[in-house]
Write a structure and sequence with these properties.
Blueprint lengths: L8 H25 L14 H17 L9 H7 L7 E5 L7 H4 L7 E5 L7 H13 L4 E7 L3 H12 L7 H18 L4 H19 L4 H6 L3 E7 L6 E5 L4
Helix pairs in contact: 6-7, 7-8
């Protein structure tokens, strides 16, 4: 073949690259034109048992790493913008390692979440926990303690050593005093862990039996569960009140 007729290799390569870029651009524009939407949202659980099962299924995904990240997109934001009906209310610690929405693999509008140091309660916190069950039929409350709770440890040491904490931290100590006394009666190798679990049980029992929530519990439309989160494994274990 004559040199003039031989195809220019560089020209062929350039042409091939140009074609590939154009093809990729076309794919990208197609993807951009297709909005990212949630899969069809699951029906909201309406019974304590169904709500509890939904949370525990999400926690299994958290432990395994096979997360669904449900209902966390603009479509979901628009869907719940005018009205919310969460299926669960979680009272947990402020600890940065214990985010309820993540460790239960839930989405926007699924949970009411209240967070205080060591799940300490008072009238405002109790009222916040009551809000969902009393206004929108939320069928489940979970009191969620956790491993190595700094607030419980600080309160334990403060009470044991008779050394008040500064400022309003002492209010947390006062709120956790019953759990300290319960732990002292129970004993155990790790008194701080014993106290943390006692705080969960006592708080769940008090919520379950208070004058506003007790009638809902008696009717079977509400369950109050005490649970404990392992920082090491990511697993939530039930301590008390799991609905059947």
């Amino acid at each position: 073949m004559d040199t003039a007729e031989r195809p220019d290799r560089r020209a062929l390569l350039a042409g091939g690259l140009a074609g590939a870029v154009a093809a990729l651009a076309g794919c990208a524009s197609t993807r951009a034109a297709t909005p990212v939407t949630s899969a069809s949202p699951e029906a909201r659980p309406t019974t304590p048992a169904a709500a509890f099962a939904r949370l525990m299924e999400g926690n299994k995904r958290w432990v395994s790493g096979k997360l669904h990240h449900p209902d966390r997109d603009p479509d979901r934001r628009q869907l719940v913008a005018q009205e919310q009906k969460p299926f669960g209310a979680i009272l947990s610690c402020i600890d940065s390692r214990v985010p309820p929405e993540l460790l239960f693999d839930t989405g926007l509008g699924d949970l009411y979440v209240m967070r205080t140091g060591g799940e300490a309660v008072g009238p405002v916190v109790t009222g916040s926990v009551e809000y969902g069950p009393m206004t929108s039929g939320t069928p489940l409350i979970v009191v969620l303690g956790h491993q190595r709770c700094g607030a419980v440890k600080a309160a334990y040491q403060s009470i044991r050593d008779r050394s008040p904490l500064p400022g309003n931290l002492q209010a947390i100590v006062r709120a956790l005093q019953p759990a300290y006394e319960q732990a002292a009666r129970e004993g155990g190798a790790d008194p701080v862990e014993t106290m943390a679990r006692a705080q969960v049980r006592l708080t769940a029992t008090n919520l379950r039996s208070n004058q506003d929530l007790a009638p809902l519990v008696s009717k079977g439309t509400l369950a109050v569960v005490g649970a404990y989160y392992s920082l090491d494994t990511g697993k939530v274990d039930v301590l008390t009140g799991a609905p059947s």
